[in-house]
Design a protein that fits this description.
This protein has helices at 3-23, 190-193, 287-291, 362-366; strands spanning 33-39, 45-52, 69-79, 82-98, 104-111, 128-137, 141-150, 159-165, 171-179, 185-188, 198-203, 215-226, 231-236, 260-265, 274-284, 296-299, 311-313, 319-328, 336-343. It has 368 residues and is mainly β. Strands 1, 2, 3, 4, 5, 6 and 7 form a seven-stranded mixed beta sheet that branches. It has a six-stranded antiparallel barrel with strand order 8-9-10-13-12-11.
């Protein structure tokens, strides 16, 4: 027996019972009267009553909508003087808007015939730009999660491209570097600097005064270099003119496998600074670095030649380390499968008591 027929049978039996109770032994209903039963879609009784034959049972109000259901109209079945009105309903979709971290921003239910309403993205800030909503849905739920990307403007006064020159002033290589305070002190990799006689830092800041697309600052020299740690600490000339673009750098010794990470620098000698996302993989040492007590933080945040001397940061833009090396894919020797960064702990003490009087030129440091 179909569900509809079963509901009708229930209604007829209810008529008989009520007729017996209300009218004694008689089960008849006068010709000008009809017995109407209103039921929910699932068979739940809403109301029953005897009405005149000219009464329109569909005038009765539909059940109130719930979060899951929207009621549309009544479906009528009639057998003699018995009328069964069944509420017709359609399922609603559960719409959820979430922030990038899973925090629920808003939720509501809408019928399937309605389109998903617009909802504003979270506000951009100095670190993050919200790009749009990323949708994931099934039959019952639509989840819209805010998608964001790092704001490169946060680092334009910190991370620069460094071009190294030979004794004739000709470029012989490039890498990345980053400024650690508003006085123009910076860090890069030793291997970026060691083969040059001089170096110039290029910031992704328009130089309106000289009509250049980028701002150039010469490297005065350095106060510390270490071939094994692959660290070079130096100072830029005239950084005070662009120090308003500087963002305070916060270092951290804490990181965890699976944590989000971002490499910041100039991979493949890009003319624009790049920020590439990934995750922390593990700590790594080869046999030679292990002997010297040196290890790296591995991440699959993209790096390539030119990234050396840039930074690896976490979700809060705290500096985890200096991007220094790449590990190649076994199947593709032209592709870095992960990058190794020198952790802050290994050069932390070298950042103490920086003194301009200790600065030596690149030439004097390496004695070409």
């Amino acid at each position: 027996m179909s569900k509809k027929a079963l509901l009708l049978l229930k209604a007829v039996l209810l008529v008989v019972v009520l007729s017996v109770l209300l009218g004694g032994s008689s089960c008849s209903i006068k010709e000008d009267k009809v017995f109407v039963t209103w039921m929910d879609t699932d068979g739940t009784l809403i109301e029953s009553q005897t009405v005149t034959s000219n009464y329109d049972p569909t005038e009765r109000s539909l059940p109130n909508d719930s979060e899951l259901w929207h009621y549309t109209d009544w479906t009528i079945s009639r057998s003699g003087n018995v009328i069964v009105c069944t509420a017709k309903r359609i399922a609603k979709k559960h719409i959820v808007w979430k922030n990038y971290n899973g925090e629920i921003l808003k939720e509501l239910y809408i019928t399937e015939d309605k389109s998903v309403p617009a909802f504003d993205l979270p506000q951009n800030d100095d670190k993050w730009i919200y790009e749009g909503w990323e949708q994931d849905s099934d039959k019952k739920q639509i989840v819209l999660q805010a998608k964001r990307k790092p704001n490169t403007n946060f680092f334009i006064g910190n991370v620069f491209q460094i071009v190294v020159k030979d004794s004739k002033g000709e470029p012989i290589g490039s890498g990345s570097g980053f400024v650690i305070n508003d006085e123009g002190w910076f860090i890069t990799n030793n291997h970026v600097i060691e083969n040059g006689y001089s170096a110039t830092a290029f910031f992704d800041i328009k130089d309106s005064e000289n009509g250049h697309q980028y701002t150039q600052k010469s490297v005065i020299g350095g106060v510390y270099h270490d071939q094994k740690k692959d660290i070079f600490i130096g100072k830029l000339e005239g950084y005070d003119k662009i120090k308003d673009y500087y963002s305070p750098i916060v270092f951290t010794e804490k990181y965890a496998v699976g944590e989000n990470s971002y490499s910041v620098g100039y991979p493949n000698s890009s003319i624009k600074m790049e920020i590439n996302s990934g995750t922390i993989l593990e700590e790594y040492s080869d046999i030679y670095s292990k002997i010297d007590g040196i290890y790296y933080v591995l991440s699959n945040s993209y790096i390539a030649p030119g990234s050396s001397g840039g930074i690896l940061v976490n979700e809060n833009f705290e500096v985890i380390g200096i991007t220094s090396m790449g590990l190649y894919s076994e199947s593709n020797k032209d592709y870095y499968v992960s990058g190794g960064s020198i952790p802050y702990l290994l050069f932390k003490k070298n950042l103490e008591n920086l003194n301009e009087n200790d600065i030596k030129s690149i030439f004097d440091i390496y004695k070409k």
